[in-house]
Amino acid sequence: MDQSPLLNDFSGEHWQLIDSDGDYRPISSMNMNELWDVFWIETVKLWEIGGPIAFNIVCQYGLYAITVAFCGHLGPTELSAVTLAQTVIGTFIFGFMIGMGSALETLCGQAFGAGQVHMLGVYTQRSMIILLLSTFLLLPIYLFATPILKFLGQDHDIAVVAGKFAMLTIPELYSLSVNIPTSKFLQAQSKVGVLAWIGFVALVLHAILLWLFIYVFNWGLTGAAISFNLVGWVNALAQFAYVVFWCKDGWKGWSWSAFNEIWAFVRLSIESAVMLCLETWYMMSIILLTGHLKDAVTAVGALSICINVDGWEAMFFIGVNAAISVRVSNELGLGRARATKCSVVVTVFQSLLIGILCMIVVLALRSHLAILYTDSEVLKRSVSELAWFLGVTMLLNSVQPVISGVAVGGGWQGLVAYINLGSYYIFGIPLGYLLGYVANFGVMGLWGGMIGGLALQTLLLSIVLYRIDWNKEVEQTTERMRIWGGQDLETEKKLQIPNFTTA
């Protein structure tokens, strides 16, 4: 088995932790000092990858969040409308697109771990093709956003403004077909520093443009949409340029091989999309149900502020999700079952600690959470009342994305999709409806039901994670690389030639 650079960070005193096959020795045979060494090694590996990825994704989320913040100061209707457009329409679209792109996360990570670096460019091109076709299928949702929101029972004035804003952001949709595949390409190789820098520059640029277009030029929501589109494409093209000009090992030029096994790739992409969409659409459904309550503007506004605060933590953990996905897929590609398991355990433990810290901070600052989003005292009080629900949600959201990242890294997205469907839509939403409408607890009841579904999902995923046979996962990864790589791995190693034809 090819020993990738992932093993190079073991200093001399740590080699006693590793068997002759390059994997960790069984944990049962380690003493406390050795266990601490494993914990520290895996921590360093995780955050070397996860830190920059998390920072990049937080910056990307910042594009959405500061758009809501700037527009929220235009008035309560604008706040609710932009939140509705971003949370319902934007989340629906982004969830589907990032889900379709997550198949690339599985395949690129496993190919890199197996030493098939040349296949990363082919997989990336294949994903670009699929995501570009997906944008045309999703376009009607933008075009008919207003009637869709009205059909879902949203307030007329809010739906009209939200629909106009959604249509103005159509160009950003197409940037995702480049942005998502190139980011997965770089993540698989742990080339994540550049993602962090690009994300930071894009966030700063967006803040400057929002201030310029909204407050200097007085373009209002139109100015916010123009900035959103421009920055989305700047981000995507910067990542693409780096892939083409600075990643010669993985990107060998455009290839007809991108069309090989494309239907199998589509199937895995759809499984990934369903898994992630069932998660992201869950929050969207709570917003929609809240829109039917009395005083919908205040209820939606307060909940949207809480969701935006929760979104900062959620985006951070999506970064951790991506990092553990890279670690799992790389280690499976290397055939290292015990190292995969150790990485998962360390990541779940640290994520839980971070989640507890986030909950404490939110509860301590509950009276001040809404200041960045609104000047309304009514909304500030409503957000403060919801802070307990926000804290519990943030605690649960610290573990769930990590387990989902393990699923993506291992390629078992289909099972997680069924768990999400049952936990969220068969249990969580009906429970929220009963508490919110039948028991008349309003937005607190709706959110309480959502927390119930999230807790059930986390419990079921934890059971699945505990029961995984990592040796079997290694065997399945080897077979996937043999089939999807286009030829037998042993033959490819002997020939040492790229498995593609340049167009």
From TrEMBL:
<feature type="transmembrane region" description="Helical">
    <location>
        <begin position="87"/>
        <end position="108"/>
    </location>
</feature>
<feature type="transmembrane region" description="Helical">
    <location>
        <begin position="386"/>
        <end position="408"/>
    </location>
</feature>
<dbReference type="InterPro" id="IPR002528">
    <property type="entry name" value="MATE_fam"/>
</dbReference>
<keyword id="KW-0812">Transmembrane</keyword>
<protein>
    <recommendedName>
        <fullName>Protein DETOXIFICATION</fullName>
    </recommendedName>
</protein>
<feature type="transmembrane region" description="Helical">
    <location>
        <begin position="226"/>
        <end position="247"/>
    </location>
</feature>
<feature type="transmembrane region" description="Helical">
    <location>
        <begin position="445"/>
        <end position="466"/>
    </location>
</feature>
<feature type="transmembrane region" description="Helical">
    <location>
        <begin position="268"/>
        <end position="290"/>
    </location>
</feature>
<feature type="transmembrane region" description="Helical">
    <location>
        <begin position="129"/>
        <end position="152"/>
    </location>
</feature>
<feature type="transmembrane region" description="Helical">
    <location>
        <begin position="415"/>
        <end position="439"/>
    </location>
</feature>
<dbReference type="GO" id="GO:1990961">
    <property type="term" value="P:xenobiotic detoxification by transmembrane export across the plasma membrane"/>
</dbReference>
<dbReference type="GO" id="GO:0015297">
    <property type="term" value="F:antiporter activity"/>
</dbReference>
<feature type="transmembrane region" description="Helical">
    <location>
        <begin position="344"/>
        <end position="366"/>
    </location>
</feature>
<dbReference type="InterPro" id="IPR045069">
    <property type="entry name" value="MATE_euk"/>
</dbReference>
<feature type="transmembrane region" description="Helical">
    <location>
        <begin position="192"/>
        <end position="214"/>
    </location>
</feature>
<keyword id="KW-0472">Membrane</keyword>
<keyword id="KW-1133">Transmembrane helix</keyword>
<dbReference type="GO" id="GO:0016020">
    <property type="term" value="C:membrane"/>
</dbReference>
<feature type="transmembrane region" description="Helical">
    <location>
        <begin position="296"/>
        <end position="324"/>
    </location>
</feature>
<feature type="transmembrane region" description="Helical">
    <location>
        <begin position="158"/>
        <end position="180"/>
    </location>
</feature>
<comment type="similarity">
    <text>Belongs to the multi antimicrobial extrusion (MATE) (TC 2.A.66.1) family.</text>
</comment>
<dbReference type="GO" id="GO:0042910">
    <property type="term" value="F:xenobiotic transmembrane transporter activity"/>
</dbReference>
<dbReference type="Pfam" id="PF01554">
    <property type="entry name" value="MatE"/>
</dbReference>
<dbReference type="GO" id="GO:0022857">
    <property type="term" value="F:transmembrane transporter activity"/>
</dbReference>
